[in-house]
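Q: What does the assembly look like in three dimensions?
Context provided by user:
Components: two
Sequences:
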Amino acid sequence: MTDAAPSAAPPPAVAQPLDVAAPCEIAIGVLTYENAATVPAVVEVVRAGLERHFPGVAAALINADAGSSDATPDLLARSGLPLVRGTHETPPGQRAAVPFHGVPGRGAALRLVFDVASRLGARGLVLLEADVPSVTDEWLERLLRPVLEEKADLVLPAYARHRYDGTLTNLLLAPLVRALFGRRLHQPVPGAAALSARLLDRLATDARWPASGRHATDLWIAGTTIAGGFAVWETWLGRRRVESRTRTTDLPTVVAEVLGGLFEVMDRYGDLWLEVGDSEPVPATGAPAVPAIEPVPLDVERMIGAFRRGVRDLGAIWEHVLAPETYGDVLALDTPSTARFDFPDELWVRAVYDFALGHHYRVVYREHLLRSFVPLYLGRTAAFVLATRHRDAAATDAALDGAGAAFERQKPYLLDRWR
Amino acid sequence: MSRLPTPRDWYKDAVFYEIHVKAFMDGNGDGIGDFTGLTGRLDYLQELGVDCLWLLPMYGSPLRDDGYDIADFHAIHPSYGTVEDFQTFLDAAHARGLRVIADLVVNHTSDQHPWFQASRGEPDGPYRDFYVWSPTDERYRDARVIFVDTEKSNWTWDPVRKAYYWHRFFSHQPDLNYDNPRVREAMLDVMRFWLDRGLDGFRCDAVPYLVEREGTSCENLPETHAILKEFRAVIEGEYGGDRLLLAEANQWPEDVRAYFGDGDEFQMAFHFPLMPRLYLALRLEERLPIVDIFTHTPTIPPACQWGLFLRNHDELTLEMVTNEERAFMYYAYAHDPEMKLNLGIRRRLAPLLDNDRRRIELLNCLLLTLPGSPIIYYGDEIGMGDNVYLGDRNGVRTPMQWSGEANAGFSPAEEGRLYLPVITDPVFGYQAVNVAAQTRTPTSLLNTMRRLIAARRSSAVFGRGGIEFLRPRNPRILAFLRQHGRETLLIVANLSSAPQPVELDLGRFAGTRPVEMLGGTVFPRIPPTPYFLSLGPHGFYWFRLERPTDGDESYGIEDALV
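A: Here is the predicted structure of the complete assembly.
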């Protein structure tokens, strides 16, 4: 229990009184949207996890549903746990754009869940993804334990993955977050997470929640947590398998959403990153998983083809966004030999920073800017695969670490141009 | 020494640019271009998009044949700078990703070369057999005279040694005696001197003539090939496989084929017969001359490449055409007798084509899309003119036209000090045709060339793919497929000065989507029936044929991006 007395008054978005769930020590937050196919498995894991790892501890489910039509909330209710349901704003644009990446109105949903957990006086909140049926009861324990028994305020997952899973995270998100916020995180946009009561109190009352939600909210949470001096931890989980009807795998859409969220946070919350210097690793629990390296069917040639089409078709945008020397270097990458295609760390970092600056200064329409980044990302991904595919997992990790270091090293380039 | 990270066969994808150091940029104000000036213009070349610079002879020379008469293989001609200036230039080029090859005359030297002076003056000295000496001028009678306008014989009497010496070119250019192993080693030492400095290779001048044998034409002899293979093996052994040897062998393709060996002689050789046939096809407005010459072009080893060109520093040579074709070419392209030289036409690209922008672009289109590595002659990318009244081939070697300022921005020297006058006529004069003006004009020939080169660089097919000519019923349309790996390009060109329709049999590509490579326009999908296109006068299309599934296939990473 937190020292502060819980407030029994529900937030406006919650129709029922909170008494049904109070008092509670552990809150389990589940954001849902059309997840009837997978939510029963998640509920079962919650029930089993609490019983096995936290027997006798008062717990409650908090569900923020974005307007499912497939009985998802009812299936959650069958868990037998005290349940608080809330509704939140789902911007029409996001709902109309389904499938897209995540729950519509994710930012508002998170805020609702944090608010309720805080009002319930929970010592810790664990967020689980409703469309990840590979979740196990150990995940619940590994995420929550550092919050309840250690000094962790925010516990983020690190998943066991193939080395070419999560290329957007590994090649862009993680190294950029490392340079911006000064923490080396494997999964800065996590989906699942655990938060301490004091962090919940801090975030729930923060007036600066990002307006757009989606990835910007997750990144803002990470940045605010780090900047506020809260303790960020990682915990190693197993493989994450998503089953969703509402997430898109449309690559340009995902890239634009993730990059847009990142740039939005940079744009609006300069105080979170402008003064940050060197990075440091975060405390981790569990045994680190070595990335799997068995061959997978990647079409590198097609990625390079997409990069070349970008060179051919997007020059008019890139000319505005990239610094002249960066643009020249990018054009020079366009060698005919696929096997020798390379996209060096330093150039990649400059391209990303130029796009961040271009977004900041609105040099072109932002949606065009974000989508025009896709061929660069594919080129970088192709080069990364070519450089590592005949090497072992340690070498792959070293390559990623080197890229992260390059983002840090070149941060002054970004700072010098950012006003 | 600077070196670029190098795929061994980089030349297959490269666009070459031929430069005369004296003509490009004057860095010290003496009226003659030099390496300092050239270094200062590397950014221009980088922006043009070329990959490799080919330097015409830069060595110590009395310049009686514009540097092809070398008197000191180990020095830079003082007018062009020093070896240190060359090194600075080479390093700066490499820093920009540009490679550099240099002309090297292996067949002969200047008569001023110390080897020749020693050979003629000391008949018993160490250089006595460095050249081909004879007491009579009756040997090797079956060898033709190449410079028919100036030379009557391949033998010239030397009053010092009191013997005849052999020369296939000018009489002041005695041929080296390659039967002498010391000559071969001496020439290898010359190559080592420049390769040690990082040079990316040589364009070897006049290679068919190294060895003489009685009763033969003294051209393309097996003994010559053996020597050239020896050169290649030594260079490959000592420097790795990425140094280029490019052969100048003005021969028919089946004879040039031998210069590739089994991939163990030259990596590249010029395709001489193609060039006049491009002009022929353009003037006849029919594709036959081009298709025909490729039909008669033999297959070359996989690592080898043809060098294609529209114009170069010499006359537009008509040695490799029939007498009828030559007569037609003279009629079509050399109405003034001053324009003829030897068996050729001494004119630049733009004047040859009456400064017709469409035809200039069309020939450049073919240069950049036919199988081989294109070589652009300096100034042709802006449509520079010539001056046939300057004598010999000087008319196509005038100063590069950089701007409308004095001396075309080439040199701050007084006008009279320039090595050759700049072009000043009303059509091609530097005030009308220059880099500065064309850089500012988006639709200029220069900017069009940049776009064409960039498009070529976007696909490995151009440098590495095979060719298949289509046979549409309209003979004025040249259409061909280039294929490499999974990529297929379709090139369609109208050789006529009038608009033309064409129906192409592309049934095997039914469902494919042609994407125009220069503008990115997506054309209607190819049906099983003939594909209809219309082309404007001298118009052309470069299409990438994208399969229906090209836009729908997976990269393999989408399932777990974040």
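Follow-up: Chain B touches chain A through 28 residues (CB under 8 Å).
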